[in-house]
Please model this.
Amino acid sequence: MLRKYEAMFILDQDTQDVNALSSRMIEIISKDGKVIEKNDLGLIEFAYKINHKKKGHYFVVIVEATAEAIKEFERIANIEKNVVRTLIINTENEQGYEQSVQLSKTDMTKFEEERKAKRDFKKPFVKKEFNKPTEKRTFEKPVEVTTEVKEVVVEEVKPAKKVVEAKVEEVSHEEAHDFVSKMEAKYKAHLAETVEEHVEEVEVEEAKTTAKKPAAPKMSAAERAKVDGSHNIDEERYELQKYSNKLRSVAIEKNLPKKLQEVNLRDLTKKELIEYMRKVRAALAK
Model:
């Protein structure tokens, strides 16, 4: 059965005999059919390189062909090394098809007649009447429901504000010192006996470790807390950090060593926060 097709094929720019190869390809696709129109578009530059080539010879053919001829055309195109690309469109089934070349009216008459007439689904315009007063509707907002929602939101926000205010509560210098003494007496068994010696031992050990072997991967605060005995400390973390923040501000004012000024308090465990406060107080006593 003959159907109408539009075929485009591109030949390599270095093809020895372009006319002979193009005629052979057109003859294959139009076997048992006929050529309606053929166009040699010439040597055109590609949008991107194909097989390391920048240009190719473009041909567009509109034919009436059989399905067997189309299959044979595609088979030969895959074998022939000088055929770069092919594209075949069944114009009778393609929606929104726009022909690539200008056909004569006599050639198109057959296909225009074969097209089925489109059915008209237009409905007659009916004017609606809106004069009846019963069709109007009024909508009232449920005031009671809106009020209940606002009250619930306020109740949920209030406790959150109290927690934030407790965390940002400021303390005095003297209160911070008293708190350190209280923690030192309460957790004497878990803390280092002398802060100064403890600091020196840590620095010496770190220097030895750095000289001999690369440093071990750093543990997170949660991992260190499982090891250093922070679970024995009853105070809340935010309370310990509150006094640590105050002593760090004092360390900055008094220009104490940079380790005490630049420490990241959020990365310290409960026990390390108490040790830090003891170090600041020992440095201020010197």
Notes: Residues 143-167 form the longest helix (25 residues). The first strand starts at residue 3 and ends at 12. Confidence is low (pLDDT under 50) at residues 104-111, 146-155, 160-168, 197-204. The radius of gyration is 44 Å.
